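Lecture notes, unit on protein representations.

Consider one protein chain, 218 amino acids long.
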Amino acid sequence: MQIYPEHELEAAPGLPEPLPAGERVLWQGSPDWKQLALEAFHVRQVAVYFALMLGLQAILSWDSADTLSGNLTPLAWSSSMAIIALGLLSFTAWMSAQTTLYTLTNRRIVMRIGIVLTISFNLPLRWIAAAHVKTNADGSGDIALELKGSDRIAYLHLWPHARPWELSKAQPSLRCLRNVSAAGDLLHAAWISRQSELGGDDTRQPIPVRMPAAAIAR
């Protein structure tokens, strides 16, 4: 696993250095920022929480002896703070999506992530033990990568590009792809082809899947 500095020095979008001979880009994609805001930054749940708190504040602060403006002013301030918080969460999700680029080649996956400090994770296909696909009703979804061996990436280094709640051995994740099945098909084909090149004895087998989700290999 290699980590690279800022993407301004990239040899090509999403790639920190020129591809070696025989390697080619098969697919590139980024998260959908709206889906990322909902799934990774939990904007919907935070909005519900603020709505409940504002309702409770309205009930507890209401006093018929006070003027209408006296009752509404605290609610207006609280509502403004809630809107600002939701706006900051949504803006962070947008920035995260804008600065993220996932690249699949015939030999590896490169994840360029990070807003302020941008780094790239280089994940050779031979290191992938399993791929877990989460598909939403609209066709979007995530691909979580389970890695072989003892190499680990800290969950906080990956977040939000990590499979939720897999903390002990974080799984790099291609989050909130608009057409996750197409990316999954390409990843499966590339994995099979790479196994064949390396002379693996499991080239006819799909990437193993160890969770009840739609698999890359069908």
